[in-house]
Amino acid sequence: MAEANPRPGDGDSLDHLLLAIAGGDNAAFERLYRTTSSKLFGICLRVLPQRAEAEEVLQEVFMAIWRKAEMFDASRASAMTWLSMMTRNKAIDRLRANAGGGQQAAIELDELESDASAVDSAESAQDRERIEVCLDELEAPRRKLVRIAFFEGATYEELAERSGNPLGTVKSWIRRSLLKLKACLER
Amino acid sequence: MNTTDSQGAPPPSNMAAEYVLGVLDAGERREAESRIAGDAGFAREVAAWESRFMPLLAQVAAVPVPDYVWQRICAALEIPASRPKAVSRPGLWQSLTFWRWLAGGALAAAAACAFVLFSTPRLIAPPTAHALVSTLADDNGAPGFVAVVSADKASLTITPLVGAPADGRAQELWLIPQGQAPLSLGLVEPERAQVIRIPDRMLADVGTSAVFAITLEPHEGAPHAVPSGPVIAKGGIALL
């Protein structure tokens, strides 16, 4: 997979580095850190706006990589997906542990209702990731909620509060959006 | 499956998708995780959703990590901190591949925990203890050059990590002391490491408060009194 080797030419895929780390290879660990930490830190900061917290979570992530690298299964996910999702999960867990530490900004959905079908229509669909194409098939307010949920790790309750909509409505929107996304992604 | 947008009761929960999307609360997340551990079908479903959403995470901008994070990781994991004896093999220190590797991940070469770098047989200890080093990166944080100042500050070794400028202009290295005008250290050749002499009058200015920068300049008349072209890379100076 393309993202499995972000530094082509250096002869060291992330898969190989993880394998070496599972065998206790310090140099491979350092190399993985240098290759991926800034990307993973960016993911931490999307969920945890407080830098100190994001740094702590990044530390947790690399400690988990050192200890659990043997759990990486290349047949199930690419290395970058495994690392990114592990990072995001740890960041979300941290967010849940200290409620109220995440993004608080109000989510404005009303203003989006009118331009529901106009977004990105000029962009060539072929050059874009499938998930983006499918997100664009959602109505603009739903798409916005789904993106915020994903990038900020916000719960249903937080999305309802921040967007000023009833919890049941937000749940319905997101669950229907997930069904639509799945149907679109599997098309 | 209800795929219409009619109002009414929410569609049933799809826990795998909701877990990956990130909307579950702490208790539900624990429940999802125990299902991942105990239910292979559920685990596959989660992995499928993770792959679907991964392209969104791939868009997240990388952010340089402060050096002390790596230091803390090493300390917490008790990765041995003894620095092995220096082996004299200066050729490698100027190897392009080595520097490309060292600067990988857009991190400063001055990162702490440097001992890990030098713990494998094919790598060597830095030429001097307490060397001043700088990773010069572009605006996106991608490293373009690595500079290592000799212990006596009389010279520096600069190694390009990127190719020659496409427009044929020369690359000029500048030392910018804090709050002062840039001082030219001359042109930097593309594609190879080289040693640049630091004029005596600049010795006092080479330190951790100064910055190195590379600009695109005409070949003629170098070293120039002032930069005229765009800055393509810059970096702070740190103690290795």
TrEMBL record, chain A:
Record has Transcription as a keyword: yes
Residue span, RNA polymerase sigma factor 70 region 4 type domain: 128-181
Residue ranges of every copy of the RNA polymerase sigma-70 region domain listed in the record: 32-98
Molecular function terms from GO: DNA binding; sigma factor activity
InterPro entries, per database record: RNA_pol_sigma-70-like, RNA_pol_sigma-70_dom, RNA_pol_sigma70_r2, RNA_pol_sigma70_r4_t2, RNA_pol_sigma_r2, RNA_pol_sigma_r3/r4-like, WH-like_DNA-bd_sf
UniProt keywords, alphabetically: Sigma factor, Transcription, Transcription regulation
Single biological process term from Gene Ontology: DNA-templated transcription initiation
Similarity comment text for this entry: Belongs to the sigma-70 factor family. ECF subfamily.
Name listed for the protein in its UniProt record: RNA polymerase sigma-70 factor, ECF subfamily
Protein's organism: Dokdonella immobilis
Automatic annotation (TrEMBL), chain B:
One Pfam entry name: RskA_C
Coiled-coil features, chain-numbered ranges: none
Annotated keywords: Membrane, Transmembrane, Transmembrane helix
GO MF terms held by the record: sigma factor antagonist activity
Superkingdom per UniProt: Bacteria
TM stretches of this protein: 98-118
Gene Ontology annotations of biological process type: regulation of translation
Domain Anti-sigma K factor RskA C-terminal: 107-231
GO cellular-component term (any): plasma membrane
UniProt cross-references to PANTHER family, sorted A to Z: ANTI-SIGMA-K FACTOR RSKA
Protein name listed in UniProt: Anti-sigma-K factor RskA
Taxonomic source organism: Dokdonella immobilis
